[in-house]
Design a protein that fits this description.
Radius of gyration: 36 Å
Number of strands: 26
Strand content: 25-35%
Shape: elongated
Largest sheet: 7 strands, mixed
Structural class: alpha+beta
Length: about 500
């Protein structure tokens, strides 16, 4: 403690009225040591205060009910600690405040405060002291709801009535990239979809808006009354959002209605879905004509898939001839520049001992060569129960619709040096086909550059990267330029000398 004289006009000295020590004149006529025995200006200011901290989200409680994110020795944490002393410290003048270093795991925060106060007969005293803040663990309301897993106010039920889950895998990566999963209390995977649980209706509505901009879908909303306070006229509801994604996935063969096919540029009714983003991308394998069908158009003129991936059969290319200068019909739409039209003669690999061959047109002329394996749908021998197919002229139906070139899956997995992140979710049932469907999705990413532009692809540190866009067999691969480095910070990293930098 030191004494700050209110006036220094007189150069003479007086004797302290308590101990007789010569001192400069001051209103109290006492030396600093005697003033310290008579007056304590820190009286009433607590020297130890509790601060509540949530371990799950690493936030501090700012009374009465606000949780704020503060790094160690930050301005935000200093302001929060001073607010805890606002009432007693308002009686003095705060001159300076700063942190005293403490070990990060000590659960102690120390502040060095400098205060001034006017005491006996107008004398001003200044004193420096330390206040210790003890960090006490307390779970915040948001983390408590997440841990409970049952305390929710809104649920978003996403459904798609298809056998393959390619669209769900694509949607999962978009959710991870845009961090739409951070506000969820729980994610539950069921047989034909995923449920997202939220603590507020606004978060659920935000997810629905995101889905409507990302995939072709339609939604419905409903709510159920939980409680009603007649005195304050407040209502407590639980909201349910039902989102149905169109039942069409990549590599599906579809049959359009005559009216829809005509509106899309007089394209053939039998088309192949080459991609599903916010619209359904279709291609006519006989003319290379492209079309996009959004969600609202689909629900006005619905169509379904003629086959699922398990019905695709393997064919071998016996002969191929590129078609050039294809004439377009009247009112035709845009043709694809990425594909090449060709006439192909193929034979099933299961019928190699026979002379039966199939002739068809395909959009895969830029990929296929003699002897290549290709997956396709055998329309001629399939039992199709579809109202649009049944009304079509049989002469307009192709014998085979080729979907994609076939490569050795085991070699592709071995040479894959990248990986994707996944959502943490509860699984109701374990689907044995999930692994095979997931591998199909990874292969689609390697083959379609436009599809993977919206997805974060991370380099797999456990595998040695090789800079090549294609392997020895011609199978497409993802280049190292498109991969991201995954940032992983271990728990031990927060306990050393760099702890302050990591938390700041």
């Amino acid at each position: 403690m030191e004494y700050i004289p209110a006036s220094a006009n007189s150069q003479g000295k007086i004797l302290c009225c308590e101990c007789g020590t010569p001192i400069p004149p001051n209103p109290a006529s006492m030396c600093v040591a005697c003033l310290r025995t008579q007056v304590d200006i820190t009286e009433g200011i607590p020297k130890q205060v509790s601060v509540h901290f949530c371990k799950q989200c690493e936030r501090y409680l700012q009374p009465p009910a606000t949780w704020v994110q503060c790094a160690l020795e930050s301005r935000e944490l200093l302001a929060l600690c001073l607010k805890k002393l606002k009432a007693p410290i308002s009686k003095v003048r705060l001159i300076d405040a700063g942190f005293v270093w403490t070990e990060p795991h000590s659960k102690r925060i120390k502040l060095k405060l400098t205060i001034q106060k006017e005491v006996m007969n107008g004398a001003i005293l200044q004193q420096v002291f330390v206040v210790e803040f003890v960090i006490q663990a307390q779970m915040c309301d948001d983390c408590h709801r997440i841990e409970a897993k049952d305390f929710w106010k809104a649920i978003v039920q996403v459904r798609q009535k298809t056998v393959h889950k390619k669209t769900f895998f694509y949607l999962e990566q978009l959710i991870l990239k845009h961090k739409l999963h951070q506000n969820t209390l729980r994610i539950k995977e069921i047989h034909d979809g995923i449920d997202f649980y939220y603590a507020s209706k606004q978060h659920g509505q935000k997810m629905v808006d995101f889905l409507q901009c990302t995939v072709p879908c339609r939604s419905k909303a409903s709510q159920r009354l939980i409680s009603h306070d007649i005195h304050s006229n407040t209502y407590n509801y639980k909201s349910t959002f039902s989102v149905e994604i169109v039942p069409v996935c990549k590599d599906n063969v579809v049959c359009l209605s005559p009216r829809l096919a005509q509106s899309l540029g007089n394209m053939n009714q039998i088309c192949v879905c080459i991609r599903v983003t916010n619209t359904i991308h279709l291609i006519d394998p006989c003319t290379l004509q492209m079309a996009e069908v959004d969600g609202s158009t689909y629900w006005r003129y619905p169509f379904s898939s003629l086959c699922d991936p398990r019905q695709l059969q393997e064919f071998i290319v016996m002969d191929i001839e590129i078609i050039r200068d294809q004439k377009q019909g009247a009112g035709a739409g845009i043709r694809s520049n990425r594909h090449t039209l060709a006439e192909v003669w193929v034979k099933k690999t299961s019928e190699m001992n026979t002379s039966l061959q199939y002739h068809c047109r395909t959009h895969l002329g830029h990929l296929l060569n003699h002897g290549d394996l290709v997956l396709g749908f055998d329309v001629a021998n399939a039992n199709i129960n579809n109202e649009f197919v049944n009304k079509m002229n049989p002469h307009h139906l192709p014998d085979v619709v080729l979907i994609k070139k076939s490569y050795d899956r085991s070699k592709r997995q071995h040479r894959r040096v990248w990986r994707l992140k996944e959502l943490e979710r509860d699984r109701e049932v374990m689907d044995t086909d999930n692994e095979g469907q997931y591998q199909d999705f990874l292969e689609d990413l390697e083959e379609d550059e436009a599809l993977r532009k919206n997805i974060n692809i991370f380099r797999d540190p456990s595998k040695i990267p090789v800079e090549s866009d294609t392997d020895d067999e011609g199978a497409p691969r993802i280049s190292l330029v498109e991969m991201l480095e995954d940032l992983c910070i271990s728990e031990d990293a927060t306990g050393g000398e760099g702890a302050d930098m990591i938390m700041s």
